[in-house]
Design goal:
Elements: E1 2-10, E2 13-22, E3 28-32, E4 42-48, E5 51-56, H1 77-90, H2 93-110, E6 112-119, H3 135-147, E7 150-157, H4 179-193, E8 199-201, E9 203-207, H5 217-222, E10 227-231, H6 235-245, H7 249-256, E11 263-267, H8 273-282, E12 285-288, H9 290-296, H10 303-308, E13 312-315, H11 325-340, H12 355-370, E14 386-389, H13 402-410, E15 417-422, E16 425-429, E17 432-433, H14 436-451
Helix pairs in contact: 2-3, 2-14, 12-13
This protein binds zinc ion.
Domain Formimidoylglutamate deiminase N-terminal: 4-44
Cofactor: Zn(2+)
Pfam family, one: HutF_N
Length: 453
C-alpha cells in the first residue's frame, strides 16, 4: 500500500509531499518527504500519528451518562463507584466482548489505535474462577482483534478492600486475585495470543488500597512489560494512606518499589511538591484521564510544575464516558488555564509555540512508553498506524503544521478524523468503521439486556 500525504507530522516535525509505503507485515516500509506521487498512491491531505489511550475500563462504557443524576446531597466518586459495581456484578464474558468491541470501534473512529486495558474483572459473578482462568482477558483480546485496535492488556491484581487489609466486599468478589493467579492469567493470555501483532500483555496493580506492595515482588520481577497502578486519585485515599503507612501514596510507592520507565502512575492527582519532582525524576508516565477526572470530580493534576520538572505524561479514556483524544487534551489544557489564570498553560516555561502541537506530541510519546511499545508514529519500521484528518471538520480551511492540531483540539466539535489505519489495514474509512453496523447491533442488543432497558 502506498499513500501520498500533502502534509504529514513525522517525528522531526511537519513535512510536505510525503510518500508512505506500508509493507505486507503491517509496518511502515518507508516514509519519504518531498517526494513525487506515483500512479499507485492514494492521495491524502493531512496525516498525523494516531493516539494511544493508556488507561481504559472497557465495561464502564456500558454506563456512560447513567451516573449523572444526584442521588444524595453529597454525591462523590464513591457513590459513582457503587453504580459501577452494580454493572461489574452482572456482566457476562459475551457482554464484555460486545461492549469492548463497540468501545474500541469508537476509539478507532476518534483517532486512537492503541489502548491499555486496565482489567480487573476476572471471575464469574459470585467470585468463582472460569474454567479457563483468563476467560475475561481473552474476551477483551477478541474484541480488540475483531475491530483492529492495538491492545496492551493489563491483568490487574486486586487483593483487599482497603489499606487496613479489610476483606473485599461482595461487589468486589469478581476482582479478587492473588499474585499467583495474576501470573497465571498473564501466562495463559500470552500463550493464547502468541505472536498476534496487535495484542500484548503487561501488569496492573489496582491501587495501594487494594494491593499490599509487600506481596508483589515476585510478580514484578517476573514481569518485563509495563506496570500500571491507580494512585492518589481521591483525597480520601491520600488520607487513608497517610493514616495507614505514614506517607502519602506516591511518596510511599516511590519509597517501596523501584518505579522506573516501565511504570505508569494513573491519575496521581493529589501530589505534594516533593512528590511532583520525585515522580518526574523516576521516568514513569503520569496517566492522565482529564475527561473522567473532571466527570468524577477527582481534582486537577499539577501539570505545570510536573512538566517543568521534565515529567512525562499520556492520556487515557478511563471510564469511557466520552471517547475523544482531542477532547482529552482540550479538557487537560483548559483545567490548567482555569486554575492558573493563564493561557497556553501546559507548555514548560521556556517553551514557545503551539499548545496543541506540543500536547499532541507529548502524549504520543507518553502513551507509547506506557503501552510498552518500542516505536510509534510515522517512521520506517513502526507499526503502520495513522490518522487522516478530515479538513471539513476543522474550523478553518488551508491550515498548516501545528495550526492543524491547535484547531483540531480547540476548535473542532467532533474528532476531525476521516480514515484510520492500524497494523497496515484501514479500520475506519470516511469517518465510519469498516464493520460499524454489525458491531453496533451487537452492542445495542447487549446493553438492552444488561441494563434491562
Ligand atoms: Zn481507572
Amino acid at each position: 500500500m502506498e499513500l501520498f500525504a500533502e502534509q504529514a507530522l513525522l517525528p522531526d516535525g511537519w513535512h510536505r509531499n510525503v510518500r508512505i509505503n506500508v509493507s505486507s507485515d503491517g509496518c511502515f516500509e518507508s516514509i519519504i518527504p518531498d517526494a513525487r506521487m506515483s500512479a499507485s498512491s492514494e492521495r491524502k491531505a493531512i496525516v498525523v500519528p494516531s493516539q494511544l489511550s493508556l488507561h481504559s475500563h472497557a465495561f464502564q462504557r456500558g454506563m456512560a451518562g447513567l451516573a449523572e443524576s444526584r442521588q444524595n446531597p453529597a454525591d462523590t466518586f464513591w457513590t459513582w463507584r457503587r453504580l459501577m459495581y452494580q454493572l461489574a456484578h452482572r456482566i457476562s464474558p459475551e457482554q464484555m466482548q460486545d461492549i469492548a468491541s463497540y468501545l474500541y470501534m469508537e476509539m478507532l473512529t476518534a483517532g486512537y489505535t492503541q489502548v491499555a486495558e486496565f482489567h480487573y474483572l476476572h471471575h464469574a459473578p459470585g467470585g468463582a474462577t472460569y474454567g479457563q482462568v483468563a476467560e475475561m482477558s481473552l474476551r477483551v483480546g477478541e474484541a480488540a482483534q475483531s475491530v483492529g485496535i492495538g491492545l496492551t492488556l493489563l491483568p490487574t491484581l486486586y487483593e483487599r478492600g482497603g489499606f487496613d487489609g479489610r476483606p473485599l466486599q461482595e461487589a468486589q468478589e469478581r476482582f479478587a486475585t492473588t499474585p499467583e493467579l495474576i501470573g497465571r492469567i498473564i501466562s495463559e493470555t500470552r500463550s493464547a495470543w502468541g505472536e498476534m501483532p496487535l495484542l500484548s500483555v503487561g501488569l496492573g496493580l489496582h491501587s495501594l488500597r487494594a494491593v499490599d506492595l509487600r506481596t508483589t515482588s515476585d510478580l514484578l520481577s517476573a514481569q518485563t512489560g509495563s506496570v500500571h497502578i491507580h494512585v492518589a486519585e481521591q483525597q480520601k485515599e491520600v488520607e487513608e494512606c497517610v493514616a495507614s503507612v505514614g506517607a502519602r501514596p506516591v511518596e510511599y510507592l516511590l519509597a517501596q518499589t523501584d518505579v522506573d520507565e516501565r511504570w505508569c502512575l494513573v491519575h496521581a492527582t493529589h501530589l505534594s511538591a516533593s512528590e511532583v519532582a520525585a515522580m518526574a525524576r523516576s521516568g514513569a508516565v503520569a496517566g492522565l484521564c482529564p475527561i473522567t477526572e473532571a466527570n468524577l470530580g477527582d481534582g486537577l493534576f499539577p501539570l505545570v510544575p510536573y512538566v517543568n520538572d521534565g515529567g512525562r505524561f499520556g492520556i487515557g479514556s478511563d471510564s469511557n464516558v466520552l471517547i475523544s483524544p482531542w477532547e482529552e487534551l482540550r479538557t487537560l489544557e483548559y483545567g490548567q488555564r482555569l486554575f492558573t489564570q493563564t493561557r497556553c498553560a501546559a507548555l514548560p516555561v521556556a517553551t514557545l509555540g503551539s499548545t496543541g502541537g506540543w500536547l499532541y506530541r507529548q502524549v504520543l510519546d507518553g502513551g507509547r512508553q506506557a503501552c510498552g511499545l518500542e516505536s510509534w508514529g510515522l517512521l520506517a519500521g513502526a507499526r503502520a498506524d495513522l490518522c487522516v484528518l478530515d479538513e471539513d471538520l476543522l474550523p478553518l480551511p488551508y491550515l498548516q503544521d501545528d495550526a492543524v492540531l491547535d484547531a483540531a483540539i480547540f476548535g473542532s466539535r467532533q474528532p476531525p478524523v476521516k480514515d484510520v489505519l492500524c497494523g497496515g489495514q484501514w479500520r475506519v474509512r470516511d469517518g465510519r468503521h469498516v464493520n460499524h453496523d454489525a458491531v453496533t447491533a451487537a452492542f445495542r442488543r447487549t446493553v438492552r439486556t444488561l441494563l434491562d432497558l
